[in-house]
Every structure is written in structure tokens, then in C-alpha cells.
Design brief:
Rossmann fold; 6 helices
Amino acid sequence: MSAAAQQSSMQNWEAYYANLKESYLFPNEFVVRTFLAHYPNLDMPHNYQGAKVCDVSCGDGRNLVLLNKLGLELFATEVSPSICEVTRQKLAQHSDRIAVDIRPGVNYDLPFEGNFFDYMLSWNAIYYMADAQSDFRDHVREHARILKPGGYLVCSVPGPGCFSLRGAQELGNDLIQIQTDSKWNMLNGTIYRRFRDFEDIESTFGEGFEDFRRCTIRDDCYGLPLEYSIFVCRKK
């Protein structure tokens, strides 16, 4: 994306989150399942009290409501200071009076020291690229950098059948430029790292992570096709 396009995209996101000031905060169902439930192929420990978590690109903070109730010490990022402030205020006004250290940051430059977090949550965020020349390996390395050895990354990315990827322009090197005709047309022009399957995910993240656990969401939400790959892995 050009500098002008990046600025326009930033302004769109800032306006979007500013308009969510009065919205309700419900954590994503599959974030709840991953952090609370027990499944045959998921053995992430649930002893969260006092552990540190970073919610990367936390949006309006909905998943931080859950993480706060679990007793985790909360940290987060968003892409601009104004979005950080909107979300910080919204959480402070929540009935639970949630306090979170939220800082401006992007996938390839996270504003925390190394080996700091026990858990990281990147929910529909890690695949956003700065431009067509960006290297996704920088995202993997940066997420691994701030996790403690053995720390857990909980991550979701859109699958090939997801509505947001329909009509996307191929840029090469598994990068695509979004051209959706859905209500999320504010995404148009955004560059994603596209993942074809779980083998692609494990190969790409394998430089810094291991012990992958898999989950797939496929749904038809009143005519809107949703497909997401969720995975949990540990820092090597």
C-alpha cells in the first residue's frame, strides 16, 4: 500500500472504533472455548492467575473482558494511539473496571521487551501486512520474541473460503490484496498474508513455534460464508 493508502486505512479504522464506544463487549466464542474448555487435542494449561497476556490488535477489547476474568495481567496493542485510547476508556468504564496496558504497535514491531509474556492472543490480526514487499517472517519472529520460552500463542486467520478473501488480487508470495464486496469494504486495498491450509501455517510459524493444535470454523452466517483456521502453539 502507498503511504496515502495506509493513512486512509488508518483513518477508516480509527473512525470505526470511535463509533463502537457504546457497543457491548462479548468475547469471541472460540476464544472462550480455547482458554476455558477441555478438548482431546488441546492441552493448554488453564492456570492463568497472575500470568501475563498480550492481545495483539485487540480492537474494541472484547476478548480482554474474558482474559481479565481469568486473572491474567492484561497488555494489548492497537495500530494507533487514538484507537488505544478509545479501547482503554471503554474497558475502564466496563462494569468490571478493567485496567489494561495498551500501546500502539504493529505485527512486525510490538512495543514490549523480549521473553515477557506467558500467553499471546492474535485474533484475526497477524496476517495484516504493511505492503507488498513485507516479509511475514518478521511477524512470526516478533511474536516469538516477546513470548517466554514455552509460552502459548493463540491465533486465528481466515481460511480460503472466508468471505473477506473472495475476489482478492494475487500479489505473489502468498500475499493478496483484498477486494471484497461485503459490508467490510473498508478492507479493500489491504494486503493479507494468505494461508492455504494448516500445513502452510505450521511451516510458516515453525521457525519460532512448535506443538501446534488445530481448530477449524466453517459457517454460513445468514449468507455470509465464514471460514477460519485457529491454532495454538508454543514458543520453542
